[in-house]
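Exam revision sheet. Question 4 asks you to relate a sequence to its structure. Input first:
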Amino acid sequence: MEEILKNLCSSPDMLALLIDEIPAGRLYRRYKNADWCIHDHLKHLLETQDIFTQRIELFRDNESPEIPAFFPGASDNKEDETQEAKDVPALLDEFKTIRTKQIELIRNLSGEVSQRQAVHSEHSVPLSFKRLLLHFLSHDYYHIYRIEELGTFKEENIKAW
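Answer key, structure tokens:
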């Protein structure tokens, strides 16, 4: 579990290092083969942090948590409009701040929470707390990769997802 937490802690810093390597003109650029620009990926990462925190709290507060599906863009969340107005450095700072709070929340959980199993509306097998954290991490890495692709690849090599 500690290795997962270490990687979750480092995701915002890895993302910031990557962004530093990307020409500023590409941060908001839209490509024909990609639905989202880099800024959109960052907004999505922030949007999902609330969902991740809620899921950690579901595990903390329920012996048998039930996890609902999440569909990006399906809510009437006014926070989305707020994120739209933020520039890339502000989004990165907020991601790091939220992630730090999430790690603190996780570290303060009792040992029994890590043994709980949740029912997820989209999964065919129970969701362990460990797999929940691994899902957070793979979600970070997926978007970090997409940001690298959008920021550094030739346009003809950017693939639709």
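Marking note for examiners. The helical segments are 2-20, 38-61, 79-85, 88-107, 129-152.
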